Known about the structure:
This protein is α/β, with parallel strands linked by helices. The chain is built from nine helices and eight strands.
Amino acid sequence: MANSPEQPKVVILYDTKSEGGSTDRFIEKLGMTFAETGAYVEKVKCKTRADYSFVKEFDIIVMGAPVYYLVVSSELLGAIIQSNLRRNLRRKNIALFLTCGSPEPMANLLYMPQMKAHLLTNKILEEKVFAPHELSDDEAVAGYVERILRAHRLASRNRSASLEWSDEALDMLEQIPSFFRNRVKTATEEYAEEMGYSTITLDVIDEAKAQLEG
Ligand SMILES: Cc1cc2nc3c(=O)[nH]c(=O)nc-3n(C[C@H](O)[C@H](O)[C@H](O)COP(=O)(O)O)c2cc1C
């Protein structure tokens, strides 16, 4: 599966209490819009108590839900607070959205922090409050997707530019089958960046591998 910065793997984690409602229809559109750019995309409706280790496999995690009675929908918020989701989101690029009826300034002040307060160490690529009329607006959705992908490409480029690979580590990377090489490169660079390494050596590759498998 491709996961170069141009064709990232995207997972949309969401919640709604209305089956077939406005959020469900929006998620369909969001998924299709990502897919049209060449991204690999999956959609997962959250449960508070679930195993979220699968998110490690994705390059971009898009998360959001409606607001009901001043609170972000409970299964998504519960998953962030109570499950292993937050641990598996480490080093991940995240985009957030909300669907709600309140004006944007109010939503940014009252609702967005309900998610962001638990994601302080993550890179938030983009966040958007979707008003009811924007949920089915092709341009609003396409703009959101475009900004996420642009920020992801930039973050990947900046990370690669600030890291060096030792000759031995590069040799090792080149031995990995091409379909899997980008995944290993990105995961190792994400690990090195978090650990503050400026050069990726064979030891760093081993550490990154052990941490991913652990
Ligand atoms: C019972 C209920 C409570 C709501 N409470 C809020 C609220 O407190 N603040 C807000 O901005 N929007 C509120 N909304 C608007 C929803 O967040 C918005 O319509 C959303 O798109 C609904 O998503 P759904 O169709 O998937 O349920 C509420 C909607 C409903 C039905």
